[in-house]
Structures are given as structure tokens and as C-alpha cells.
Records
---
Amino acid sequence: MASQLPSFPRFVFTVLEPISLLAGFFPAVLFPHWFISEQIATWGPPVASTDHAQLVARQLGNCYLLAFLVGVAVLYTTTEIKVVRNYLVALWLADISHVGLTLHGIGYDKSLAVGEWNAMTWGNVGATTFLFLTRSAYFAGLFGRDGPRHSSGEKKAQ
């Protein structure tokens, strides 16, 4: 259960991350042409997008919504910290591939030109790296131990 997480990772995983997933969902579904053209920062006219590319962008947006829903379901309903930790391990692995695929997609030179990154690249690389590092620090115990489990029927020790 997310309430057992230390304060900082609990806030990051139960508030910031769900908001970031919705921030990926809405533009991909509502503005797929813009979403596609922002994936790689370019100077000049926006990149043309095909119906095929727009469909894929909307499907990706749907995946962001699915990730949001699964996260909310896991973090707000389970009573098992083991389930929360396993969910976070899965996200930790996905963070690695997400950043790696993004950097591969934008290429070596643009990967190093951090000052030229647009908001989309900062979201895909910067925000995901922040989530990865927060998960890594949590797994390493840098935020302290998970809190005690209290079910609604248990009395707290006085």
C-alpha cells in the first residue's frame, strides 16, 4: 500500500507520476500532429504526420492512460507493500528502456545537446530519469524504511 512508502517517494509515485502520465495522454490523443512533431526538437516547419503516425500517437496516448489507471489501482488499493515494490520494479525497468529508446531515437548529437532539448525531450528523458533515480533511491533505502502496516481493523500501539 502506498501509504507505507516514505513521504517523498509516496508523493512522487502517487501524485507527480500520475499527473505526468495524464500530461502524456492528453496531447497524444487530442493533438497527435503536435505530439508527433515535438518528439524530436527541430528548427523550421513542423514535421508532417501521416494518418498512420497519428493513429500510433493516439495509441501511445492510450498506453499512458492505461499506465495511469494501473498505477492508481495498484498504489491506492493494494494492502501489500510487496505488490507496490514489484510494481515499482516494473516501472524502474521501463524507465531504462524509455530513456534508452528516446536517446537512440533523437540520436547521439541531440542527446548531448541538452541545452537544445524541447519540453517533450525533457519530459521523456529528464522526468523519466528523475523517476528512475527516485525509484533507485527508494530501493536503496535512502528515504528510510517503509512504514508499518495498519489495517482499518487494527489498533495502533499506544
Note: The mean pLDDT is 92.
---
Amino acid sequence: MDKVLLQQLVLDRLADDLRHTEQAARVAHETATHEENIAENKYDTLGLEASYLATGQARRAEAIRQAMTQWRSFRPRAFEPGQDIQIGALVCLVDANDQQQLLFLGPDGGSMKLVSEGHEVQVISGDAPLGRALLGKSEGDEVSLQAGPGRRQWEVLWIH
């Protein structure tokens, strides 16, 4: 599977998210500053609430921009046999029911699912709980993660 293509898919998704977030921030700002939303009493909070929303959307947009910067400078590379999992790895996990899961460990802005070459790939960062559990593991290693009241376990099938 082409990691450069996966990187581009992540950048495309982040760009889409940024467009939507910036549009939402503009709408919230317009609502907050519209003359009809000037508070007439202490219970009239529509303008104030829209202002908080606009601020939150602006912060989210900045976080997406930072993630895009990291993904643009990211250079995925091939992994050699026997090499431990690091950022940039494409990992295949298998659970006790023989269900396989593809993961792409990236620098930031993960937590998205992509479809590439007919396969679903979960993009995660090394800061995500599963990402932290994977870092330093090798093919054949067991990985476990507390998930709610139970534990999930996988085996690292392969690393690319």
C-alpha cells in the first residue's frame, strides 16, 4: 500500500475539515456580531454563545492548520524486516477472531478512517492510546489495550 498516497488522503481530509471549520467560524462570528443579537438583558445570551462558538471554531481551525503542517513535512518511509513500529508505519493487526485491522501511524491529526486500494485504514497518531501501545512493538508481538470494562488484544501481523 502506498504511504505517500495515504499521506495525501490525510491532507485532503484535513483540508476539507479546515474548509468546514472556517465556514462554521464565519457563520458563528456573523451571528455573534449581528445587530439583532445585541443583548437586551442579562438573559439574552445568543450573541455571547455565538461568540464562544466562533472562538472554539477558530481554535479548531488552527489545530487543523498545525496538523496539516506536520503532515506536509512528514516523510513516510519503508520499514525493514525486524524493525520496530515507529511513526510512519503501516501496521496490520489481527485479533482472536482473525479480524484484521490496518493502521497508519502518523504525526498528528489522526483518528480518521480512509479507504485506499480497497482497504479501510485507520489513521492514528503516536499519542493515541493504541498508537502508544504499538510504538516499539515488532511483528508477532502482542498488543493489548483497556477498552471500557474489558481489554482488547491483537497480534502484530506485519509492519510496512
Note: The longest helix spans residues 3-33.
---
Amino acid sequence: MNWLGKLPGYQRTPYGVEVRLLRMLPSGLLAGVVLPACMSALARLVFNQGTSAEIEHNLQTFDFVMVGLAVFIWIASLTVAIGCVIVWLMKGPAYVADGYNVSDSDKPKI
């Protein structure tokens, strides 16, 4: 029995946006970590007004926002990657499914 019998006469669909998005994901993931880290480091230079406790509170809040942004970018990238892989697999070769004969499909039981 041939498990992976390709559908005769099937033509592969050319790749589209999904492959370009998959190739851009590593740089997007890197930017999603580096940019919030740089912004957090830059915040140490900007937040210098107020008491020591206020500055620490503002920096901690900003750091939490930057960590949240990085996690959001990673999760969004994972979601886009899953979607791209699904589209890429759907554009792959078509396979013939095995038929399953139903005993009473043409003659229903009464």
C-alpha cells in the first residue's frame, strides 16, 4: 500500500508571502529583544528627576513595560510563524486519500 500517493496532475502552488515572512522572523525576534533592552538602558539616562524612590519606581515600571513588549513581540512572532507554516504546508503536494466504503450508504436500513 502506498501511504503517500500524490494526486495525479497536481501542480504545486508557488510560494508567496509566507516564505518571506518566515525569513524575516529571526531578525524580527532579535529586534524584539534588542530594542526594548536599549530603550530600558536609555531610560536610565532620561528618568533623573525626583527623589530616589520615584526614580526607582519609574525605572521599574518602564522595565516591566519593556519586558511585556518583548514577550508580546515573541508571542506575535510565534503566532505568525505557525500561520506561515500552515499556509506553506497547505501549498505543498496534494495526496490521495484512501477510500472508505460505507456498507449502507446507497441502501439505507429501514
Note: Residues 37 and 101 are 61 Å apart (CA to CA).
---
Amino acid sequence: MSFSVSRVKWEQAASLLRDVREKVFICEWRIPRKIEFDRKDHYAFHVLVCDDMTQEPVATGRILSTGEISRIAVLMSFRKRNIDREVVKGLLAIAKDLKLDEVFIYSPLEDVEYFRKFNFISAGAVFMEAGMPRQRMACAVADIKKSTRFAFNH
């Protein structure tokens, strides 16, 4: 099975991006719709992964010009295929094109140790977002270790 990874703009692919994020974050995680879809979507850089055979969207993620990586979502039936890795690779390629020195995520607390394995460092205090405790994790783009899997990140 093969997949296509594309950089897309919100205005062009909003329905496809929404489809994946609704299934993962709203249906599975029970994130309220008003929190899931925010104004940042309009100026973020998005990655969309589609199944080459069906042309259906199966994963997405976004990065802001500030270096914030978020909204990484992979449909449940595709999670064992390392598609999350392709999303992150696409987002890091955008970070390099933007000449960003650093990227960061707001990691769920249970994933903090996981991201430390890839040179992400905790920064700041734990905070609540969408009812979940989070920790800001940052890493220089040049220091991110290659991984075989990245955790989901809202």
C-alpha cells in the first residue's frame, strides 16, 4: 500500500483536513469542535497524506511559522503503518524551508518521555488544554533524531 504526502493550504483542502481531524480528535478524543478548529488553520502550513489506491485522506498535521507543530492525526485503521512519521517528516521539511531554527509541540504528559528520546526538551510549566495536561517540548530542527514513530499530538 502506498501513500502520497502533500503540502496543502487550508483554503484548498479544508474538507479533507477536517475529515481526518474530526474522526481522530472529535470522535475519538472527544475534543470540542470549537477547540479543534481554530483561526490558526487559515495561516498554518498543512501536510495531508492520502491513500494512493482510494485517494482518501488518512493523515494530517500542521506547523505554524512560529515552529509550533500540532494537529497530527492518523485514522485508526492506518496507525500501524508509520504514516505519522511521514506527516512529521513533511512538517520538518516545511520547518527547514521556513528556515526555522526550532520547532515545538504541546505534548500530552504521557508522551513527554517519548519526545525526550528525540532531543525535545521540556520548556515551561505544565498547563491544561482541551481538558488534558500538556507540556511544551522544544527542539532545534537540526537536533531532531530520526524516529520510527511519533505520538499523536493535538
Note: The longest strand covers residues 132-140.
